[in-house]
Amino acid sequence: MKKIGLLGGTFDPPHMGHLLIAEEVYQELGLDEVWFIPSNDPPHKTATNTKVNDRLEMTQLAIDSNPHFKINTIEIERSGTSYTFDTVKTLIDEFEDIQFYFIMGGDMVEYLPKWNRIDELVEMITFVGVKRKGHDLTSPYPIQTIDIPVFEVSSTFIRERIMQGRSARYLLPQSVESFIKEQGLYGSE
Question: Could you give the angle at which helices 52-63 and 16-29 cross, rounded to 10 degrees?
Answer without folding.
Answer: 50
